[in-house]
Amino acid sequence: MTLAIETEGLSRRFGERLAVDQVDLQVPTGSVYGFLGRNGAGKTTTIRLLLGLLRPTAGRARICGIDVVRDRPAAARRVGALLEAQGLYPHLSGRENLDLTRRLLALPRGEIDRVLELVELRAAAGRRVAEYSLGMRQRLGLARALLGEPSVLILDEPSNGLDPEGIAELRGFLRDLPGRSGATVLLSSHLLGEIEQTASHVGILCAGRLVSQGRLDALKAGLPAELLVGTDAPDAALAIARQHGFEVEAGPEGLLARLAAGEGIEQAAAALNQALCAAGLRVHALVPRPRSLESLYHLAGADAAPSPAA
Ligand SMILES: Nc1ncnc2c1ncn2[C@@H]1O[C@H](COP(=O)(O)OP(=O)(O)OP(=O)(O)O)[C@@H](O)[C@H]1O
C-alpha cells in the first residue's frame, strides 16, 4: 500500500493548548479518506500542517513521499486544497478567479474549462462571484483545487453551505474522483452520514489525538454487534438486561444492547429474550442493527467528552 499522505508524531501547540497531538495519519493512494471529529478536535489545524501553512511543533508530514517542511514547494505542487476561507475575489467572475490561479501554476488555458465542466459551473463562469450562491462559491473553490490535476485533494468541510441536492452531487463527484483521475481525497467533516456514504477510509480525531483509523468496512466489521430491543416497559427491560450482564442503553428507537466482541448474536438474542420474558415483559422486537460509522465514532469516544481544546 502506498501512502499519498503520511504523518508521524505530527503535533502543533498554540501556547498551552495542544491542538494536534502526535498524529500518525496514513492515507492510502486512491482512497477517499474521511477525516472526522467534532468542532475544535484539530482537523483544520492538521490540514494547515499538511499544506505547510503552519509549522509543526513536532513530527513530520509527507505528501506523496515529499516532506512538507523540507520541500514545501514540491509538496504544494502535488496538492489542491479547498479551505473554509476560500479567498475568492467577489468582483471578478468565476472564470477570472480561476485564471489567477491558472497563471500562478503556469497551466494551459484549456484547464479552466476542464475544471468548470467538472463542477458544472460552465454556464455561470462569466458572472461575478458576488452574485454566486454559497454552493456555487463552494464549487468554484473546488474547481480551483482541481486545477492542474493534483495527485492529492484536501477539502476542509466541503459540504458547508450546500443544500441537500448539492451535498448529494458533491458526494457522487468525490466518490468517483479516485477512479476517474487516480487522485486521493482527504475531506474533513463532522457529518458522519456524509462520510459514511463517501469515504473508503476514515480517521477519527478527538481532542487532537487520532483515536481510530483504517478502512471503513474493516473498522465496522470489527465492531461488536448490536441488538435493538422493543418492549412494552423499556425502563424495566433496561434494568433486567443489565442484571443479566448486557451492556445496554436507551435510544430513540428502543433499547440498544451492545454485545461483547466475538459474542454470537443469535445466542445473545435468545438469552436476552428469555431473561425479559421470564420477568414478565412483552418483547415485540429483537433486531440486529447494522454496524455503523456512528457506533464506531461513539466507541472511539469521539462524541463523549467535549474536547479540552474546543
Ligand atoms: N491560530 C490559533 N491560535 C490559537 N489556537 C488555535 C489556533 N488555531 C486553532 N486553535 C485551537 O486549536 C484547537 C483545534 O482547532 P481546529 O480549528 O483545528 O479544530 P477543528 O477540528 O478544525 O474544528 P472546526 O470544525 O470547528 O474548525 C481549537 O481549540 C482552536 O481554538
UniProtKB/TrEMBL annotation:
What SMART domains would the database entry show? Answer: AAA
Instruction: Print the keywords alphabetically.
Output: ATP-binding, Nucleotide-binding, Transport
Q: Which GO terms describe its molecular function?
A: ATP binding
Domain of life per record: Bacteria
Q: Where is the signal peptide?
A: none
Q: Which InterPro entries match?
A: AAA+_ATPase, ABC_transporter-like_ATP-bd, ABC_transporter-like_CS, P-loop_NTPase
Pfam families named in the record = ABC_tran
Q: Which SUPFAM superfamilies match?
A: P-loop containing nucleoside triphosphate hydrolases
Q: Which PROSITE patterns match?
A: ABC_TRANSPORTER_1, ABC_TRANSPORTER_2
- Report domain ABC transporter positions: 5-232
**Protein family according to the UniProt entry:** Belongs to the ABC transporter superfamily.
Q: What is this protein called in UniProt?
A: ABC transporter ATP-binding protein
Provide the species name: Pseudomarimonas salicorniae
